[in-house]
Amino acid sequence: MNELQQQSILFVGGKGGVGKSTSASALAVMFANMGKKTLIISTDPAHNLGDIFHQEIKEFKTLLLENLWGIEINPHIETQRYINGVKRNLKGMVKSKMVNEVHRQIDMAASAPGAEEAALFDRMVSIILEEGNEFDKIIFDTAPTGHTIRLLSLPELMGVWMDGMLERRKKTNKNYSQLLNDGEPVEDPIYEVLQMRREKFSKVRGILLDQKRTGFIFVLIPERLPILETEKAIGMMSNHGLNIGGLIINKILPIQADGEFLEKRREQEKLYLKMMMEKFTNQTLYRIPLLEEDICSIRHLEKFVDHLQKEVF
């Protein structure tokens, strides 16, 4: 059985302009056509799903086709939701005279670098944990490579950061217990919130590292720069324990494309295809030809699905 059939969570990434959203949408339609209840989520701030499916898609589940739902995560809304959640968690833990100042500091943090990524990651974690049992397939259409790698490495990085926070909090509580000299542990709601978030991140990291459950696919075209970027991405993700199992090679010139110009392009393309076969020996390669027409409707997308299905099965 192909891994893609078995894995319930798929991340589709790659360089900008290579057809990530189209490939992710084609995978989603393919599984939906097979009767699999499927959810596709765009984490790319420059969303394309609504344009592909000709529907307005917001931050909540929208029915796109039979068995297929979509979500486009709005980073600004998620950041505000995330900040409001932090404020709720601090409610009752901060002295009333300090509340306004603490909230002002938190609001300022919302515009700091990394705030949107943290909010996006929080929503992604919630979708994986809350929707995992409802859907047969969850497919993430991600932003260009660098952003995707940062996002997917967050469970590991935040896990280490949370461990440090928990350890410091534990030490503070121990000192406080000794000060009281009653031997009883102090109640600490902040420690409990940190512990709950640590467990949540740990659970998601476990899911991401489980190759039977989660797959990573990169899309590229037979040109030099996408090949080099994909090679780097595979190495960087591997450093975080994440393995890219499949590559969709998009827009390969079809045999029937004729003319001297295209023949010259095809000769160059052969060299790049050979380079990919030599470099990416640990990945399954799915080849999709350049289609005659731009993919601007469900009818066009179904043509992509036909080619993909022949490669996958």
Account of the protein in words:
The protein has about 325 residues and is of the alpha/beta class. It has an eight-stranded mixed β-sheet with strand order 3-4-2-5-1-6-7-8. The termini are close together.
Short description:
With 313 residues, this protein is α/β, with parallel strands linked by helices. The chain contains eleven helices and eight strands.
How would you summarize the topology of this molecule?
Blueprint: H1 3-6, E1 9-14, H2 20-33, E2 38-42, H3 49-53, E3 62-65, E4 68-72, H4 75-90, H5 96-109, H6 115-131, E5 137-141, H7 145-180, H8 189-209, E6 214-220, H9 224-239, E7 246-252, H10 260-279, E8 284-289, H11 298-312
Parallel strand pairs: 1-5, 1-6, 2-4, 2-5, 6-7, 7-8
Antiparallel strand pairs: 3-4
Distance between the termini: 8 Å
Largest beta-sheet details = 8 strands, mixed
Beta strand %: 5-15%
What general form does the structure show?
elongated
Helices and strands, in N-to-C order?
A: HEHEHEEHHHEHHEHEHEH
Rg over CA atoms, rounded to whole Å, is 23 Å
Summarize the amount of helix as a percent range.
Answer: 55-70%
Number of helices: 11
Structural class of the helix and strand makeup? alpha/beta
Main attributes of the structure:
alpha/beta, 11 helices, 57% helix, 313 residues, 14% strand
